[in-house]
Write a structure and sequence with these properties.
This protein is an alpha+beta fold and 159 residues long. The chain contains 3 helices and 4 strands, in the order αββααββ. A hairpin with a 6-residue loop joins β3 and β4. The mean pLDDT is 83.
């Protein structure tokens, strides 16, 4: 009986982290979708040259970064996957949320400065090591999005 109790407590904690992590992730995705809808009119492109004739009024570098951590349940699943190999599907939503959040923060910074376009966007990622375990584990991921924010307007054509 004592062995059953000692085994059930870690299992309870693992399930608790699953439910809390799922709830927090769901809320973050909801926030991301709402903010993406609010900034859908901002042009964000990666062209070496504009495909159309525009007048650039101002330009600034803008960036957005975020650090997103994963819960213990996803870390547990990832450790199991490392044993057998293959895709670590439990980490994919983590990277998706980080990328979308960083781009949103970059767009927010551009809008706050009065720009209407961001060009030449780049994304950088880095893994944050868990220092409690000698740096061997992953505590989360940092995502940095940066680009050139422009205030542009189409040139007037006489025709």
């Amino acid at each position: 009986m004592e062995n059953l109790i000692s085994l059930s407590f870690p299992l309870f904690l693992l399930l608790l982290t699953y439910f809390i992590g799922s709830h927090l992730e769901s809320n973050h995705y909801k926030s991301i979708r709402e903010r993406e809808a609010a900034t859908k009119d901002m042009v964000v492109i990666n062209f070496p040259r504009f495909p159309f004739d525009v007048e650039i009024e101002r330009a600034d570098m803008v960036m957005g970064s975020v650090v997103v951590s994963h819960d213990h349940f996803k870390r547990f699943l990832a450790q199991l996957r490392i044993i057998v190999g293959g895709r670590i599907k439990s980490y994919e939503p983590l990277l998706d949320r980080a990328r979308r959040e960083a781009v949103l923060r970059m767009k927010d910074q551009a809008l706050a400065r009065g720009h209407n376009t961001v060009v030449n966007i780049r994304l950088e990622t880095s893994r944050l090591a868990n220092s409690r375990r000698g740096g061997k584990g992953t505590a989360g991921v940092e995502m940095l999005a940066y680009g050139t924010a422009l205030t542009i307007r189409a040139k007037d054509y006489e025709g």
